[in-house]
Write a structure and sequence with these properties.
about 150 residues; four-stranded antiparallel β-sheet; alpha+beta; about 25% helix; three-stranded antiparallel β-sheet
Length: about 150
């Protein structure tokens, strides 16, 4: 093997190494921006806190057609009460205590579940039932003091 062949082989190895490093750096840079979760990954406690204090409704929103799926579609009351989020394996719900009693603000089934029944209130108690293929979860909420609390079904 001549000197020239050895230089060609060494140059080829160096070129492959540099191209590989550049490619790995580009994949890391692009991959993080594509697959990264905005704001980072959230813990279960952070999700529960976020559900307990839902985002405010924009002032220009009306109660007709602008509500998200699973919401009441009614405009928020003039003096909203204490809101709290609840989670079961079948789904989640947000309830609020106010002058008329407790009412469900929103609810959403978990994957593999559907909403079978909803009593949204306002009333002494409200409930939502999430039904899956093998199991059913009923969430019943009452106001104790001025705070919504999940209670066992009577």
């Amino acid at each position: 093997m001549g000197r020239r062949s050895l230089l060609v082989a060494a140059g080829w190895v160096a070129t492959v190494a540099v191209a590989t490093l550049i490619g790995l750096g580009a994949i890391r840079l692009v991959g993080e921006s594509i697959t990264g979760t905005p704001g980072g990954v959230r813990s279960e406690a952070e999700i529960e806190r976020a559900l307990a204090s839902p985002e405010p409704v924009p002032s220009g929103a009306t109660g007709t057609g602008s509500a998200a799926p699973g919401t009441t579609g009614a405009a928020p009351s003039a003096s909203p009460g204490v809101r709290r989020g609840f989670a079961t394996e079948g789904g989640t719900a947000v309830a609020e205590c106010g002058a008329g009693g407790v009412r469900l603000v929103s609810w959403a089934p978990a994957q593999g579940y559907r909403v079978r029944d909803v009593d949204r209130g306002p009333d002494d108690d409200v409930e939502v039932t999430f039904a899956g293929s093998t199991r059913e979860y009923e969430l019943k909420v009452r106001c104790i003091g001025s705070e919504p609390v999940a209670v066992a079904d009577d």
